[in-house]
Amino acid sequence: MLLCRPNPRLRDLFHRAVGTGKPVVALSDTYHRRSLLVRLLEAVGTPLPADAIFASSEWRVNKQSGHLFDAAFNTLQVAPAEVLHVGDHPVSDFRTPRTRGVKAVLHGHHGTGHLRTAGAAPDAPLRSLLRAHASYAARGTLAPGGFWWQLGHTTFGPLMVGFALWLRQRFRADRIDRAYFLLRDGEIFHRVFEALFPPAADVPACSRLAASRRAYVFPVLDGAPDFVLPNLTVCAGPRPVGEFLDRLGVPAAAYGDDFHACGFRDPAERIDGRREGPRLLALFDRPRVRQALLETSRRERECLVGYLRQQGVLSAGRVALIDLGWHGTIHKAAQLLATAFGTGPQITGYYLATFPKFRNVAVPHLRARAYLGGPGDTDPLVRAIATAPQLLEIVCSSAAGSLLHFARSGHGFDPVLRANPAGADQLHALGEVHAGTVAFAREYRDTPAALRADAIPPALAAEDLLRLLTNPTKDEATRVGGLAHGDDFGTDAVRYAARFRPTSDTPEAVWEDYLHAFWKPGLLNQPSPQGAVLRTLLWLTQD
Question: In CATH terms, is domain 8-108 a member of 3.40.50.1000?
């Protein structure tokens, strides 16, 4: 009974009917005994006496045939025309009673057909609990933010709770003294962790730490150029080549001759940094450019170190850095700084997931753990996430602007932020996703201890995320596909998760959109004319 949840809309209707003095009965096609149905209805606040419940298990007839309705009418001595029937099955609760002369109302609710039914696996009880929470919110009016709230509650709630439970276990096992959740992605991790575990003696001191690749990687250029320089070429699609210097605080306009020497027309020429890496690296290596980069990097390094000391990150002890993960770039930069001082903290990175290329860049004394997979792991779930990591980066991102660098402020150091490039609609949507995620965490926390678990297997926690990544519903494909992703490296450049260009009115243009989409299932499942063209093209290209 502890898992029973009311449908709020039907509960309100029930109490309104009772309040007006109308007799209420229940009809159910079920194999359960009537005595159990009495207890179930009592548990959710809609009590009915046993003689007001007509169950197919005891009458040996069902609603779909209409005979259970006949049994109720005869027993109650009521005419069908005097009855209002409310139910959610299009045949048993709508079409059939209408043939009997009953006024029938089909009660619709958000479908949960994509949620898998729990099987007989060892984790079936825990899966049932997670699915009960998800189904509870999906079936009524409990999702205050609609689609986005529900996405956070159903898809990301179990994932974030599983990650937080794992973090607590790891903090204990590794005897962590201080834990820092890296902004912007770590804010939602911290909110979920706080919802589950209020400050206590068995939880290390937790706080949020301003962080970004731009602010942490560039300052270590002097000591680790092979690590830093490839990171300076990242971008979200074609950008003016001068932007790769401007975003680092080096004015591109002052180095026109160096651009020409590397084969660029001028700083306004648009390039894709991922494809033009060698030419960009040649530009960075030009003597005047290299000197300007080093001088700016050293100034930023001084402020970064000051900020980390101010926040206690570089003090002695066991320190945890919590982030999404992937390649651990921010953690690696922080470790390089800590190692350079010789003494200080023992830093461990704790990640939602890491990709196989995590180990491509080796940093001395690096310690890292991942909830999903691990460094070098290639399990199906990690591979699925690796096809569209930007999707999780979007969902986990906070409303705060992107961190550029740190600057002195009075006697301390403060983050210098760039305005968030996401529009107001996206920020509102993500706020609802996070609200639904935190709501799930609170529900899990309030679940009786006998039912919940202290750990959720990664495959179970990420089950609905895997479905979303590989086979989204049409609504998910359209809505989530319209979210924008920024490069988070000091520019306003964005790409959409999965969106056709308005001008894509030919098969060639549709195919080009598909090739450039980073969430391809999201584009493929959209119920638009372009989506239909794309599905046809893929069908035609199959062997």
Answer: yes
